[in-house]
Amino acid sequence: MSAATMLSYQLASRTALQMAYQLQTSQRDHRDGPAGIRFEPLFTNSARYAGRTDIARTNIDAGLGRAHTLTAGYEFERERYESRSADENPDLRARVLAVAQVVQHSHSGFVHHQIRWLDGRFQLGLSGRFQGFRLEVPQFQGGLAPYQRIRPAAPPTAYTGDIALAYFAAGTQTKWRVHAGNAYRAPSLYERFGTSFFFGAFSPFGDPQLRPERALSLDGGFDQYLRGARLRLSATAFYSRLQEVILFEFGGRINPATDPYGRFGGYLNGKGGLARGVESSIEARLQPDFQFNLNYTYVSTLEASPATVDGSLKRLGISDHMLGLFVRKSFATRWELVVDTFLASSYLFPFYTELGNRAFEFQGPRKTDLVASYTRPLSENRRLRAYVRIENVFNHTYYESGFRTPGRWAVGGLTLEF
Question: Is residue 15 part of a domain?
Answer without folding.
Answer: yes
